[in-house]
Structures are given as C-alpha cells and as structure tokens.
Specification:
Length: 136
C-alpha cells in the first residue's frame, strides 16, 4: 500500500510540474523569485536542468506546471543570477527577457504584455557602472 501511495504522489508531482533537482532536492521560490524553505510561501518550484562552467541552468514553474522562468545562476543556492533569462506569463507568452550580471539585471530588457505585444524596453546598469559614472 505504501508503494502505491508513493507511486501516486510521484505521478501527481510530475503531472503538476513539481520538479526535483538531480540531487533530489525540491527548490521552492517566492513570488520574488527568491529561494525559500517554506513550502507555504512558494509561488514557484524549480529544477536545476544543467550544470557547467557557466553555472547552473534553472527552470522555474508555476505551481500549476507552466514554465515561469529559465536562466542561469552562478551558485547552486540560486542566489546569484548571471546570464540570459526569460520570464513567462502563465499563458506561455514571454513576459520579459534579458541578462543578469553578478546578481543584477543588466543591459537591455525586452518586455511584453500578457498577449505578446511589445512593451517599452528597459535598460539596466550594474552598480559598478553607476559608481564609475558618478565618480566622473
């Protein structure tokens, strides 16, 4: 009976989009895309899908299973986003895409509305660039 319940629970997690990382850990994220240990605070659940010299490639899903975000982190704790990121609305349309540098949005970010129509782009500078400009 316990085996059947375990099999059912695993199937349910797979169907609903819950993911388990290669090391067996579920990673939950708040609505601000910050890792949390509190399952009740979670708005998303994510999975490390690749590991390379670039870092850790991650996909985060809404609790209902749809893809919310895909991007790269420098650390396994998922605190330092770095590289290309794409965020999605729950209907599958791209919400925004751009790049992170050392944990902060950097450069040009393309943005879209819920129906996929372009919104005004945003340009982000890193703290180092802002400091260099203010020092001049």
């Amino acid at each position: 009976m316990r085996f059947i319940l375990s099999l059912f629970a695993f199937s349910l997690l797979t169907i609903t989009g819950y993911s388990i990382t290669p090391d067996g850990m579920e990673i939950y994220m708040t609505n601000h895309m910050e890792v949390t240990d509190n399952k009740k605070e979670a708005s998303y659940i994510c999975k490390i899908v690749d590991e390379s010299e670039m870092g850790y490639q991650v996909k985060a899903y809404f609790l209902t299973g749809e893809l919310k975000m895909e991007g790269w982190f420098q650390d396994k704790e998922l605190t330092q986003p770095h590289g290309e990121f794409t965020y999605y609305y729950q209907n599958g349309q791209i919400e925004s895409k751009g790049e992170f540098m050392e944990g902060s949005k950097f450069g040009l970010w393309e943005r879209y509305d819920f129906e996929g129509n372009p919104k005004p782009e945003k340009i982000y500078a890193t703290l180092q660039i802002m400091q260099a400009i203010s020092d001049k």
